[in-house]
Design goal:
It contains 13 helices and ten strands. By secondary structure, the chain is α+β, with helices and mostly antiparallel strands. It has a five-stranded antiparallel β-sheet with strand order 1-2-3-5-4. It has a five-stranded mixed β-sheet with strand order 7-6-8-9-10, with helices on both faces.
Length: about 325
C-alpha cells in the first residue's frame, strides 16, 4: 500500500473565511509573520523571534527542522492577531510612524552558519563555531556564540566542555537537554575512536590506539585504571575499567588484573590510566604498581606490552621510557 504523502502547507489568504478575516491576516503580515495551513496543521514563519513567547502561549510548538511554529489545535489566526493588537505598536510591528528598531547583529546568523557548513563542510569551523553549532540544537532562538566562547574560556577545550561536571555548567545556565547533548557528543567521539582499534592488531595501529585512549580518558576528572586485553595475535578482545579512584590515586590489585586476564584467555595486556592533573609523567607509585603487575602476569605467561599514562597534555609510554625492563 502506498504511503500517504503529507501535504505541503499552502499560504493562507483572506479569501478563506475559515482561516480568519482579512484584518487578522493583515495584523500577522504587519508583524512579519507568515501563515500557512494544510491538513489541520497551521505553520507560522517569518519574523518569529520577537514573538516567540506570544506564539508559545498561543499553543504553538517550535519545529527546529523547518524553522517555524506549528499549531495543531486549530487556526491560530484570530488569537494571534488579538495578542499582537494588545502589544505596544513598535513591538507588534505596526506602522506607528516611529523608526523601526534595528535588527540584532545575530539576525539570520544560524541560517548563515548552516549554509556555510553545507557549502564548505564542517572541518574549517573553529572550536567555538563547532560548539556554537551544537548549541543551536539545544537552545532555541538565542545567539549561542557568546556562550560557546565563554565555555571554552572557562574549560579550555571541546573535550573539557563535554566532560564538565553538571555543577560547573550550572553557572552558565546549561540545562539538562544541553548536558545530554554534551555527553552524547563525547560518547560518540569515544566510540568512533574505539571502532578504529577494535578487532584488529593494536601494535600495528598504535596511533589509533593512543587516540582512542585519549578520547576515553584525557578529560576524566578522577583517575581510571583500564586494561586492554589482547589475544595471541595482539587483537583487542576487551577494554575494561578495572578501578576508579580519586583525583590523584587509583588502587590497583595485581591479583585481580591477572585473574581477569585468565578469564578472558588474554595473552597480553596494555595497561592504561589517566592523570586528571593533565601531566602524563609517571609517578613513583605508577612505576612500582606496574612492576608488581608485570611480575604476576609474566609468571602465568601473560605479556605486558605497555603502560600508557594519559593526560590532557599528551601521553607517556612506559615502554618508550624504558620502565618495563
Amino acid at each position: 500500500m502506498a504511503k500517504a504523502k503529507r501535504a505541503t502547507p499552502e499560504p493562507v489568504t483572506g479569501d478563506d473565511d475559515a482561516l480568519g478575516d482579512d484584518e487578522a491576516l493583515v495584523a500577522l503580515l504587519a508583524a512579519g509573520l507568515r501563515l500557512q495551513a494544510a491538513d489541520n496543521l497551521w505553520r507560522v514563519s517569518g519574523n518569529t523571534l520577537p514573538h516567540r513567547a506570544l506564539l508559545r502561549e498561543a499553543g504553538g510548538a517550535w519545529n527546529k527542522l523547518d524553522q517555524c511554529w506549528e499549531f495543531a489545535a486549530g487556526d491560530p489566526t484570530a488569537l494571534l492577531a488579538t495578542a499582537l493588537a494588545a502589544l505596544p505598536p513598535a513591538t507588534a510591528g505596526h506602522n506607528s510612524g516611529e523608526a523601526a528598531a534595528p535588527k540584532p547583529h545575530y539576525w539570520g546568523h544560524r541560517g548563515r552558519v548552516r549554509e556555510r557548513v553545507m557549502r564548505s563542510g564542517i572541518e574549517p569551523l573553529a572550536d567555538y563555531e563547532l560548539l556554537e553549532l551544537l548549541l543551536f540544537y539545544s537552545i532555541e532562538r538565542v545567539d549561542t556564540k557568546p556562550l560557546a566562547k565563554r565555555l571554552l574560556d572557562r574549560f579550555g577545550t571541546l573535550g573539557d566542555v563535554f566532560a564538565a561536571e553538571p555543577a560547573a555548567l550550572r553557572e552558565f545556565e546549561i540545562d539538562q537537554k544541553t548536558l545530554i547533548l554534551f555527553r552524547t557528543a563525547r560518547e560518540a567521539g569515544r566510540r568512533l575512536a574505539e571502532r578504529k582499534v577494535k578487532d584488529m592488531p593494536v601494535l600495528t595501529n598504535w596511533q589509533q590506539l593512543i587516540d582512542y585512549c585519549h578520547a576515553a580518558l584525557a578529560h576524566e576528572k578522577t583517575e581510571q585504571f583500564r586494561i586492554l586485553f589482547l589475544d595471541r595475535k595482539n587483537v583487542l578482545i576487551a577494554d575494561e575499567v578495572q578501578q576508579r579512584g580519586t583525583i590523584d590515586h587509583t588502587p590497583v590489585y595485581p591479583r585481580e588484573v591477572v585473574k581477569r586476564a585468565l578469564a578472558l584467555n588474554a595473552a597480553a595486556l596494555i595497561l592504561v590510566h589517566n592523570h586528571p592533573s593533565g601531566d602524563p609523567k609517571p609517578s613513583r607509585d605508577d612505576i612500582e604498581m606496574t612492576r608488581e603487575i608485570k611480575t604476576a602476569a609474566e609468571a602465568l605467561g601473560i605479556s605486558i606490552h605497555d603502560h600508557l599514562v594519559i593526560g590532557r597534555k599528551g601521553h607517556a609510554s612506559f615502554r618508550s621510557l624504558g620502565l618495563l625492563t
